[in-house]
Each structure stands twice: as C-alpha cells, then as structure tokens.
Request: fold
Amino acid sequence: MIDIVRLSFRDFWTAKFISLSLLPLLVSILGLTWLMFFGGNELFGALQEGAKIGEYPFLNESAPYFSFWLKILDFDATKWIVSAIFYVLGSFFVLILSVGIALIVAGFMTPIVAKEINKRHYDIVQDSEVSLSRTLNLSVKVLLKFIGILLLCVPLLFVPFLNLFIINLPFFYLYYKLLLIDVGSNTLNVPKFELLWLEGGGFGFIFACVIFYFVSLIPLAGLFFQLFFIIFLSHLLYRKQSVLKF
Reply:
C-alpha cells in the first residue's frame, strides 16, 4: 500500500495530471459559489411568492394569514435568519454535493488516467472491455440501493450523537460503489471486473475509499485530490490483475 501511495504521488505531481486535477476543482468551486450566493436568495424569494398568494381575492379567508407572513418576510432580519438557516442546514449537503460534482467530473477523466497509468507502468493488453450498458445497469442498481439506505437513515437523524455520522453511510456507499464501477471498468477486463464486483473490491479498495471519502469532506482538499484517488485506485487494480489470472 505504501509503495502504491508513493508511486501515485509521483504520477500525480506531474504537469499532465496536475492540470487535469484542476478541472474538478474549478467546476466544483463555480457550482458551489453559485449555490451559496444565489441559493439563499432564491429560497427567500420562493417564500415571498408563496406568501403573496394571500393577496388573491378568492382566498379572502386566508388572506390575513398570508398577509401576516408577507409582512414578516419583508423585514431584513427575517431575510438574514432565513439565509442563515439555509447556509447552516445546507453546509453538510454542500460538502456532499462538492464530492459528487468532483466525482462526476473526475469520472469523465478516468479512462484517460487509467490508460496513462497503464502506459507508464504496466502495459497490460485487455482482451475484453466492460460494456457501457453493464456499467449503467450497475450504476442504476447502486443508485436505487443508495436511496433505500438514505430513507432508512433519515429517522435516525433525530437520534442524538448517532445523527453525527449516520447520514454519511448512504453517501459513502454511493461514493465507494461508483468508484468501484468507474475505475474497475476502465482497468480490468470483463471476467476480472465481474469477480472484483462480487467481492466488493476487496479490503484494500474499501479501506482506501473510506480514507478518500473523509478527505473529500475537507473543503477544497477533496476537490483537488479527487484525481489522485483515481490514480491510486488504478494502480491498486492494475496490480491486482497479477493475482486475478484468467
């Protein structure tokens, strides 16, 4: 493992990979900046528009109620409170969203990264490639399972202490499984990929994904090093092929 880390860092700190690593970072920063600056205002605007429904004559009985909320929303202090709540409650999900954006952008570069790593260090010729339909099928199944796990975890958010980490379970599952599909399908042939999928990537892959997931929750660090994670996992799976003989 230590040898793979050193090798991955040597690859990562090259002009080609550093330049590629800036793409997930820039895309994520632009997306999150838009969300943070305009998201609160959009939410507040939606609340105001909803309150204005009381001005319509066919809702005369409810008009006093809606007019009251409209007046409340007109105060600057109310706008500040609404924005503050939005930012506080959304902070964790913004981090998760940043991980998702970086993962998606890096995913488009995985074929480039995998081919470059193979060319530099392994020169393995694949006799078959995992089809797009297979990866899409697995991704849909993973997404459905993620939704199921997320729904099971939602009630536990109201349990003190447990709620501090329980929400990470479904998101880690999604993160780890998508990386397994993405990197595995670009580094292994069909039989080896199917075997890897059945064993869940193995302990080394899962352990690396746990570390990478929590690093990804650190603002900017996870965005910049997302490509490093792809490089490391590509090395890990290319080396695994010496064991998976078909």
Notes: Residues 131 and 137 are 10 Å apart (CA to CA).
